[in-house]
Specification:
This protein is mainly α. It is built from 14 helices and two strands. The chain has helices at residues 2-24, 28-37, 49-54, 59-70, 74-83, 90-106, 109-123, 141-162, 169-186, 195-204, 213-223, 233-246, 249-255, 261-283; strands spanning 127-129, 135-137. InterPro entries: MPAB/Lcp_cat_dom.
Length: 293
């Protein structure tokens, strides 16, 4: 009783700040204030679906699922393995990604465009040769399209399963359309604007997708050897198991990730809902969502 009435809010605040700092970095509070406090027009109004999805704790699961799914394109995986340095600085990469999502989702139109321009400048320098001898470029429209599709699909699936307020059918289409605005700015040609179009475009990539040794190593890193403190291993494991449950069965087979479908409904998803709700509870006092929102 004393914990809830006296220490509860303080405990929740400490947990929330620890999570927020991990995701947004030490400059997260300043970034959040700048993103929301700078006056000016935005790409997305306050009622747009993208704001609801990106501000929900379900993004923790969606983000992991997106990384696993994206790794199944050999050229995209080669670019990540050769240039991102995600293993040496996984939290830094997460913080840069979360800040980009926050700026483009909630920031002014000018700051969103500047964030996009920075990403495009980086993409222009990333090129090389995959293990199978094929050249790759991070600004290849085909690769940009795959990364975008896998990300949108994972974020939306996670939100619909674990989000506090799932979207209706129109809202799902609205989210895909909102994300198409960002994708177009990043150089993705003709991105989908409805959920049906998203599913059709994903299917078009199926013949190009398979797990390389780098993709399987990435899955092992993310699922078995995550860069999280010992005390966070159990909740992280729950999030990871639920991220796997969002993937197509063929994808988990390619990555050699074990899954037991009957167990997903009995315990994996309920635990995922509980952990996501716990993260949402911890972040609620200061409205610090999964991005610096």
């Amino acid at each position: 009783m004393g914990l809830l009435s006296d220490g509860g809010p303080a405990v929740r605040d400490r947990i929330g700040r620890a999570i927020f700092t991990r995701v947004a970095g030490p400059d997260g509070p300043d970034s959040r204030a700048r993103i929301h406090g700078t006056p000016g027009p935005r790409w997305f109004g306050p009622d747009r679906p993208v704001r609801r999805v990106h501000g929900d704790a379900s993004m923790f699961i969606g983000g992991l699922a997106a990384l696993l799914h994206q790794s199944l394109h050999p050229l995209a995986m080669a670019a990540v393995a050769g240039h991102s340095g995600f293993r040496g600085d996984p939290w830094g990469r997460l913080q840069r990604t979360s800040t980009f999502l926050a700026v483009t989702t909630y920031g002014t139109a000018d700051s969103a465009q500047r964030a996009v321009d920075r990403v495009r400048a980086v993409h222009a320098t990333v090129r090389g040769t995959a293990a199978d001898g094929r050249p790759y470029r991070a600004d290849d429209p085909r690769l940009l399209g795959w990364v975008h599709l896998a990300e949108v699909d994972a974020f939306l699936r996670a939100h619909q399963r674990y989000g506090a307020r799932p979207l209706d059918a129109a809202g799902c289409d609205g989210y895909v359309a909102d994300m198409a605005r960002i994708a177009t700015a990043l150089g993705v040609p003709d991105p989908p604007v409805t959920r049906a179009e998203l599913a059709a475009r994903l299917a078009e990539y199926r013949g190009e997708l398979h797990a390389t040794p780098d993709a399987r190593a990435t899955a092992r890193f993310l699922l078995l050897n995550p860069p999280v403190p010992l005390v966070a291993r159990l909740p992280y494991g729950v999030l990871a198991a639920n991220a796997v449950s969002l993937l197509p069965v063929w994808a988990t087979r390619e990555l050699r990730v074990p899954r037991i479908p009957p167990a997903e409904g009995l315990c994996v998803r309920p635990l995922g809902t509980a952990v996501t709700a716990g993260i949402r509870w911890a972040l609620a006092p200061t409205r610090e969502g999964t991005v610096p929102a």
